[in-house]
Structures are given as C-alpha cells and as structure tokens.
Amino acid sequence: MKKRVLLLSALALGLSTLSFAQAPASIKKGLKITLLPKNINNPYNVIETSGGLEAAKEIGATAKVVGPSDAGASSQVSYINTAIAQRQDALILAANDANALLPYLNRAKQAGVKIVTMDSDTAVSGRTLFINQANSEGIGRAQVQLLGKLINYKGDIAVLSATPNATNQNTWIKWMQEELKLPKYKDMKLVKIAYGNDDDQKSFTEMQGLIQAYPNLKGVISPTTVGISAGARYLSTSPSKGKVALTGLGTPNQMRAFVKDGTVTAFQLWNPADVGYLATYAAGALASGMITGKQGETFMAGKLGKYTVGKNGEVVLGPPYTFDKANIDKFDF
Amino acid sequence: MNRFKGLLGWEFSLIVLVGAALLIGGLLSPDFLTGSNLSFLTANFSEVALMSLSMTLLIIVGEIDLSVASILGLCSAVIGVLFAAGVPMPLALPAAFVTGGLAGLFNGLLVTRLGLPSLAVTIGTLALYRGLAYVLLGDRAIAEFPAFYTNLGFGNVPGTLIPLPMALFAVLAILTVIVLHATPFGRALYAIGANGVAARFAGLQVERVKLSLFVLSGLMAALASAVYTFRFASARADNASGFELSVIAAVLLGGVSIFGGRGSVVGTVAAVFLIGIINGALTILDVSNEILTIVTGLLLIGSVLLPNLLTHFRTYQQRRRIQGDSVIQ
C-alpha cells in the first residue's frame, strides 16, 4: 500500500515536472497590463486602447490606460518607469520615438515586464512583439479587391496617390498592380497614376483631371487620407457622382458625409480597436509564457482568431478593415 | 535681517514638504519608496534642476531667461547634426557649449546694450532658437550614440543608485551656493536685483554682471542638453520643449522673488525636488497628466501668491500695532 502511494506520488511528481516544461495552454488570470498610447486624448488612441481593455476583461487581466497629453519624444518615459515600479506583467505601447525609449524599455525588460508595441514600433531590441495594423501587400491587394467588387470587375481605373516618391504609397501601388494581374481583373485597366502630393487643392484638381481625361473611368483608388477626402469632395458635386467609384484609405470622420450622401460606398483603413485587442492578447500570451516572441509561434486572440509571430517578432493584424454605411457610425476618429 | 529670516522659514517649510511628499507617496503606493524608483525619479528632473541654478541667479538680479529650453533643443540639435556628420563627440560637445554660450550672449546683449526687457527678448529667442533647431534637424531624430556617452546620461554613480546627472547637479549646486552666499559677486547680485540704480551708483558693473549671467544660462542649457541627449539617446529639435516653465516654477516656488533681490539656491533646490517628487508620486498613483499639470500650476501660483499675502499680512499687523501704540500714547 505504502509502496503504491510512493509510486503514485513519484508519478505525479514526474508528470508535474513534465507539464512544467511545456508552455501553459492558456493565459494566466490576474495579469497586470499597462497600455501606453502615444497621446491620451487622441480619439484614435482612445478607440485603440478601448479594444485593449475589452480583451483584458476577456482574459481576466487588470489593465489600465496611462499616458502623456502631448506626443513628445520623452514624455512616455516616466510611464515606463511606473510600469517597472508597479511590477506590471506587460506593457503595451505605441512609441513616440523609436530610440528615445530604448534604454528605459531595456530596463523594463530586465525587471521582467514584457514589452509589446502597437501602431508605432521601437527599434527591434526595445520590444518582444510588434503588432502591425496591416502589411503593404495586404493593403495593396485589398484595395483592388474592394474596387473590383464596387465596379463589377469592369472598366478603366486610376490611382490618386500622394507624392511620386512616397515609399509606402509606392509599395502599395506595386501590390495593387500585382493583384490586377490575376485573371478576374482582366477587364479592369489601370490607366493612370496621378499624384496629389498630399495637398488638398492639388488632389482635388487631379481628381477633376482624371474624370475629364478618361470618359470610361469607372473607379479611383486613393491610398492616402488627404487624397481620398479631396477626391470625394470633388466627386460629391460633379455629375460623375455615383458613376465613378472612389475608394482608398481614409478615416471615418473624414469620410462620413461622403458615405452618407452616396459619393463613396466603401473605403478602408484598419480598425484601431482590433489593434489594441490583438496587442493585449499577445501581451497576455507572452506574460503567461505561452509564447516567447520567436518566429513561427502561434497564439489565439479571442474573437480575432489565431495569429502567428512573424519575422522580428512582428504580428500582422490582417487585411484592412472596410468601412461602409452599415458600420461607419460605430467609429469616431 | 528680518527678511532673511522669513526666507529661511520658507526654505525650511519646503524641506518639510519634501519629506511629507515622500512620506505620503510611500503611504499611498508601496512601489514609491523603492531605491530604483527614487533613482529614476530624480534622474527625470536633472535637466530642470541644472537649468534652475543659473535661472536662480538671473531672477535674483531681476532678469529672466525664457529661452533656456529652446537653447537646450538647439544645442541638442547641434550635437545630433555634428555627430551624424561624423564629427567625434569630443568635438561635437564643445560645439554645443559654444552654441549655448553664443545664444546666451545674444540674449544678454539685447538686454544690456539695447535696454530691452528680458521677458520680451527671451520670448522672442524662445521661438528663434527652437526654430533654428528645426532648421538644423527637421523632424529627424539622431540616435545611436556611443554607449560611453549614453551611459553618462543614463547611468548611476558606480555602486550607488545616484544618477550621474544628479551627482553633477549636486557639485554645481554647492558651487552656486558658495558663489551666491559667500562671495562679493553673490552679494552684488542681490544689490543689483534689489535696486539696480543704487547698485550702479555704488560702482557695480551692473550690465557686465547681467551679461555674464545670460551667458551662464546659455552654457547651463548646453550642459543640460548633453544630459538630455544622452539620457534619452536621442537628439531631436523638440527636446525638452516646455521645460522653461518647470524651471521658472521651481525657482519661484523656491522663494526667489520674481522682482529680484531675494532668494536662495537652497530654496530652489528644495523646490526642484518637491515638484519632481510630487510629479513622480502622482504618476505612480496613475493620476492623469492633466491633473499633474494643474497641480504644478497651482503650486506656481501659490508660490507667488503666498509670500505676497504674508507680506501684506505682516504690514497690516504692523500698521495695527503702530495705530494701537499711538492710541495708548
């Protein structure tokens, strides 16, 4: 009898050490998480951190949002120190400066605080994970996919970009052209890439020029918030309203009126709440030891599903979010 | 002599308040009175502390320098631009000091040669120097300085939790105390601040003294710029923007009269610590940034108001006593 108990306990001990070696299967309850946006009163940041707080509730963590009222380079530093002093399990931040925070983030890491950036990254050494709202390929392809749907995959299309040497714009346009090579777009022709120089007036007149120069123009993609709103303003009072589809990257507050009056059916950007939500799940998984930030590791992020850690600890939220009449009133930024 | 006693009372109250702030912070948050937190907290106001020393001297002679934080930004930009261009740090740093000294000299010349009020002059140069910083650096941030230099800004005195910049501050604060309270030059500052015309008649080189203090203010801002740039490993044109208000708040709260002629370094140092500790405690208690700014503002108003109210109260009492005496007679 005694022997059996001994054997059983030995077995139990063996099992427990075995399970110790394995990564825990779920996020620990009662984690302490600090969300540190760039600036605390910015509506975009408020939505972003509200997503983080929602996720924190789901994983049973105590989360709080702190931050400076200005977006100065060093104004986040005292909050990083506070996270150390308060022995937080994780710190999620959108960095105001990629380098100014590094020594302090390293000190936080040494003190055992897990660091996740979202929105605006630091140098790779400053954090374990970076939650990227979207990658260039995803943005470029999704814009063409959306416009294709809007114009029934037929007709001339144009791009109204920012400046000819804007790196991000050009990368997106390159991916748009890749997407257009697919067979389903065989009846769509990219006739012109115009540049509004991220200037309201110039974008407005470029939009006017596109519509006058190409009578068969069916759609315009403007992957810049300045371009799309100036383009929409021109379109809203022109006879082409409702005939030429305009889409691109814009913010709900900028585009609301044009969506409501029928000038624009749908446009894209990411959902900031999802960025914060994903970041909090990632921080939870990191602080529970489920992941370490190595490429290829996976974790579940509640309603958003499964995510994989990419190169340099980057986690991409996914394709951009599409705003239309049905959902635009849920956003204020 | 009486006046001096009143001032000592003010400084004593400040030191008591520093103790109280530490105690209350510790009671409200278990994470507050830890060595590493206090170490960070003091490092976090080292630039303000450094600049408050020269500002104390300037305000005592009845002048002010609102451009210090802009000079800091400009010097930081100079360090960044030169370093990015491949100039070694032992040459870039002196260049920043020359820049700071010249910026201070320009302020001083406008005030002493043209007789312009320093408040107006330095509001102008506040914008001018910040603008020059942007011309030099734009939106760029220069980082990745050699570890040796960033450690100077970020590190502690070996074997202790005392931040290196605060050790530097301690040395300079002691020097300032000696100069201000134990040399003829220091006495001259009070005389000039109390009555510039009388001081001139007494043979003091009023303009020259003021000019040298503006240059000192620029040099101190350059020193603070080196601390800031290395502490954050980041040279940016907007470095330390808004810090001039913290510096002036500390000096006035420290009991230095905005009208000149009165004040001490000890008061300034106590006030720097008081503001820094209150800010640090409120931050660790997760009090929002807006409240933090409001508290600093109230402290500043209080520090200007309270001494004035006390003076009024004292004269009122004196008058009553005199009236009472005359009635008895």
UniProtKB/TrEMBL annotation, chain A:
NCBIfam families: RhaS (TIGR02637). It comes from the Bacteria. The keyword Iron does not apply. Residues 1-21 form the signal peptide. One of its GO terms (cellular component) is outer membrane-bounded periplasmic space. Gene3D superfamilies: 3.40.50.2300. This is Rhamnose transport system substrate-binding protein. InterPro entries: Bact_Solute-Bind_Prot2, Peripla_BP_I, RhaS, SBP_2_dom. GO terms for biological process: rhamnose transmembrane transport. It comes from Deinococcus humi. Residues 33-289 form the Periplasmic binding protein domain. Its main location: other.
Automatic annotation (TrEMBL), chain B:
InterPro entries: ABC_transp_permease. One of its GO terms (cellular component) is plasma membrane. Keywords: Cell inner membrane, Cell membrane, Membrane, Transmembrane, Transmembrane helix, Transport. It is a multi-pass membrane protein. One of its GO terms (molecular function) is transmembrane transporter activity. The keyword Cell membrane applies. CDD domains: TM_PBP1_transp_AraH_like (cd06579). It is found in: Cell membrane. Pfam families: BPD_transp_2. Its main location: membrane. The chain crosses the membrane at residues 7-28, 40-61, 68-85, 91-111, 118-137, 157-180, 211-230, 242-259, 266-285, 291-311. PANTHER family: ABC TRANSPORTER PERMEASE PROTEIN YPHD-RELATED-RELATED (PTHR32196), AUTOINDUCER 2 IMPORT SYSTEM PERMEASE PROTEIN LSRD (PTHR32196:SF71). This is Autoinducer 2 import system permease protein LsrD. The lineage of its organism: Bacteria, Thermotogati, Deinococcota, Deinococci, Deinococcales.
